[in-house]
Amino acid sequence: MNDPIDSRQLQIFLRLAAEGSLKTAAAQLFLTTSAIPSRIWKQIWGVKLFHRSGRGLVLTPRGEFLARKGGPALAQLCALRRQLADETVNERTPFRVAAGHSYVSGLLLEVTSEFLDCFQRVTLHVQAAEREECLRLVRGHEVEGAIVVDPPPDDSECIVSKLFSDRLLLTMNARHPLSALERVPSRQLNEQILIVSRASSYTNRTLQDQITRHGVKFRDVMEVGSVSGVIEMVRTGVGVAVIPDGFVTLWKLQDWR
């Protein structure tokens, strides 16, 4: 049962499974019937894959399982062979990056396009994670870099470079009663519902701490799981959100408050 599955044997098995005939399968594989190892249709890899009947070869339950799973597996092996034969396969360098969930769902596409234009021989792998997990991945050398909010300034295991800074904007539907005000009094924010992507995220916790210090306590906090969800909930007037100005530009929310 521990014998490795050979791709040629798998190819022969799949043809036998499709045709149900040793002679037909051999002809399609440009083989003689004697060239097909009998153990493939008798017993191979420690299991019986076929029954012989008057109708030819009939799959056993295990044979049906392998027929379902073997096709995709063989296709992956063939694709791998083609990739190995590609002369440029060794010229592409993997670059692994961890980033916050909101960044990945909101700004990653625009930044990735620019990155790949500049570094065309790099294969970019991005992993979405909370800030603490992003830093752990960097320290553990599981990624080459991370994009995080408020990186630790005195971390001997990390080199910090500032990529950009965003202003946080109070955002609401243009028809919201507060949108007509030049300055929104903090006491009126106490009556609002704050829409957030992930309530447990480092960014949201930091934001809530800063807001509380200024005497603001929202009536409720609604977690919707994604930046696009925040946008849609604010668009429908359910509540307000605090959004980086980069997202406002990206999502074309300039007509919002």
Which descriptors apply to this entry?
257 residues; alpha/beta; Arc Repressor Mutant, subunit A; D-Maltodextrin-Binding Protein, domain 2; 3 domains; three-stranded parallel beta sheet; two-stranded antiparallel ribbon; 9 strands; 42% helix; elongated
Task: Provide an overview of this structure.
It contains 11 helices and 9 strands. With 257 residues, the chain is α/β, with parallel strands linked by helices. It has 3 domains: 79 residues, Orthogonal Bundle (Arc Repressor Mutant, subunit A), CATH 1.10.10.10; 56 residues, D-Maltodextrin-Binding Protein, domain 2 (3-Layer(aba) Sandwich), CATH 3.40.190; 83 residues, D-Maltodextrin-Binding Protein, domain 2. A hairpin with a 2-residue loop joins strand 1 and strand 2. Helix 1 packs across helix 4. The radius of gyration is 29 Å and the shape is elongated. The model has no long low-confidence stretch (mean pLDDT 79).
Distance between the termini: 66 Å
Indicate the overall shape. elongated
Structural class: alpha/beta
- Helical fraction equals 40-55%
Q: In the CATH scheme, what's the topology name of the largest domain?
A: D-Maltodextrin-Binding Protein, domain 2
Strand order in the largest sheet: 4-3-5
What is the H-and-E element order?
HHHEEHEHHEHEEHEHEHEH
Mean pLDDT: 79
Measured on Cα atoms, how large is the radius of gyration? 29 Å
CATH class label of the largest domain: Alpha Beta
Oligomer: single chain
Q: What is the number of helices?
A: 11
How many domains make up the coordinates? 3
Strand content: 15-25%
